[in-house]
Each structure stands twice: as structure tokens, then as C-alpha cells.
Design a protein that fits this description.
Helix content: under 10%
Order of helices and strands: EEEEEEHEHEEEEEE
Structural class: mainly beta
Length: about 180
Amino acid sequence: MASRLVQIGVFGAPHGVRGELRVKSFTADPQALAHYRPLTDEAGARRFEVASARLIKDDMLVVRLKDVGDRDAAAALTGVGLFVPREALPPAEDEDEFYYADLVGLRAETVDGARLGQIIAVTNFGADDLLEIRLDRGRRTVYLPFTKAVAPLVDIAGGRVVVQPPEGALDEPTPEGR
């Protein structure tokens, strides 16, 4: 089975004229991004080797890549995501810490053990993280807040996330609500 790739950053705009790029890092320590191997694009087709990296603020780095020597080559990478194999990431540090990639594919079930469906994504549209669940019944998807109150148990080893959906969250949409 092919390794799952996890996005750990994204190339931004070129920085200067010598081929450096801004990179938004999604790692806990932004500078750790430069030490992961192999760094690839989403398809795993292109590999990137960081020659140097420096933090410019918060989660933003300026990196120099081997084989990228000018602004045009750097500009061609703008918007390209940086991915690593899931197994290249360190283990979670505590029991309430998860890699979102590990949640995708888990079954969602209620606190009384009834199966709801499968988690197909963890997203954030600007406020809080949301579990996107494809319901077994009706094959539609719903979003539930990824909070301790709504998802009191994450059991990765058991392949499940126990959820307590807020009232009305699983109701069928009405024709007017579509």
C-alpha cells in the first residue's frame, strides 16, 4: 500500500531575485519543516531539498531549495504544497493530540455505539476545526465541531471517533434549506 502523504507546508511567493521562497509551515516548530525528508508535492512526483531556511515570523520561513536558483524558478512553485510520508512525522506527544491525517477514514459512532458513518476530512474554514463525516444513511456529509464536547473519544487504535452531535446536526435538510 502506498504511503499516505501529509501536508506540512505550502510555498508562497518568491523572496528576492536569487530563488528563495516564502514557505508557510504547518509544523508545530516551523523550522522543523526544513529537516523532513523526503519533501514532495501532493502527487509525490516532485521532490524538494531545502538547502537553507530561516524564520521570518510566526509560521513563515524563507527557504532556498537546491536546484532553484532564480526568481522565475521560485515563482513557478508558488502555491505548491509540501508533503511528507505520514511515517516521517514524530508520534503525537499526548493522548489528546492527533494528526488529522490519522482521523480520516475512521468510523464515526454515537456514544451509544451506533455507527453514523466515516470521517472523510478535518477542515477549518476560519473558526474551529470540523470533522466532515459521510453518513452511512443517505450518503450525505455533515460537519461536526471537533471539540471535546462533540467528539469526547478519539480511538485511533480502535478505528473510531465517538461523537455526540449537537441537536439537529444530523437532521435531513429541508427543500427550502438547500
